[in-house]
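Anyone able to model this chain together with 3-amino-D-alanine?
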Amino acid sequence: AQPTLAVVGATGSVGSVMLELLSSRRNVWGEIRLIASARSAGKTLTCRGERLDVRELTAEAFDGVDVAMFDVPDAVSEHWAPIAVSRGATVVDNSSAFRMRPDVPLVVPEVNREAVHDRPVGIVSSANCTVAAMIIAVSPLHDEYGLRELVLASYQAASGAGQAGVDTLHDQLTKVAGDRLLGGRPGNVRQAVGDDLGPFPAPLALNVVPWSGELADLGWSSEELKLRNESRKILSLPALKVSATCVRVPVVTGHSIAVHAVFAAEVTADGARQVLRNAPGVILVDDPEAGEFPMPIDAVGTDPSWVGRIRRAMDDPRALSFFITGDNMRKGAALNTVQIAELIAAELAKGAPA
Ligand code: 2RA
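re: yes, here you go
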């Protein structure tokens, strides 16, 4: 029989993308069980053309479940993932709760799919949305040229902060739209937006906010440390030098990252394009003269990382600069988690030890 899949957080914004993917990808699942918090339980959602009732998150909800995908806040994963494992499920967790634990693999299938099979506590973590988009392009270049350092600037969409982020951006844009000069007069965006900041520390409309996540050590944000720590773990490069600045931008969906990568070997832009042209999960869009760039408005709703603006550093033949955009709700969250779950389903189908 095909494995039973649970979707925990099914009513959330990432959860709904998971259901969409499960309905459009080749089906490898038997029963699909939708699970959510008590306040969201009882809703009925559609997946694979079936109307499914959303069940409340309880221990019993995991009885008979082979694989459980979680897209819930860190604290909820922290508490419930071990319970799901104790009821027999293998957990694929999209929160950051377990990502840096040495006994939990952190996986982006295009880069390190083999890590899925070594999961001593029955949990596999999916990577941060910005990391997932970036690492898919950086990894093949590392394989070819030997990565030594990453200097990153992210341009992260409002939907990375959930539905609240999207609603806040929409409300703020409504308030600032219409007055063509508003963005050009000091202080007026703050005045127009008022105190409706939602999940952001400052107004997002007509602005960029150089912050994502929570305050961490030495002035770094938690998001910037994720880009450093998760990249090191996924690439197995514990000494990789990473410096990231994570910025929220007034985009609904689509995270972008400007990358400066320093390698051991000399690189050329054409050589890098050749490597990326054949890389899994990458679309090369690199023709500035024709106005072709990786941009959120094109990447949204698609699976790959869109990569362009590839050029060799003017002052270092071992360094490349380039730009990446990916749909943070799909490959950044729902798709990466679904792909990992499918790898586990394939393992179960072969009768390997779950
Ligand atoms: C964000 N990467 O964009 C974080 C969580 N999705 O807010």
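Residues 128-130, 156, 160-161, 212, 223 surround 3-amino-D-alanine (CB under 6 Å).
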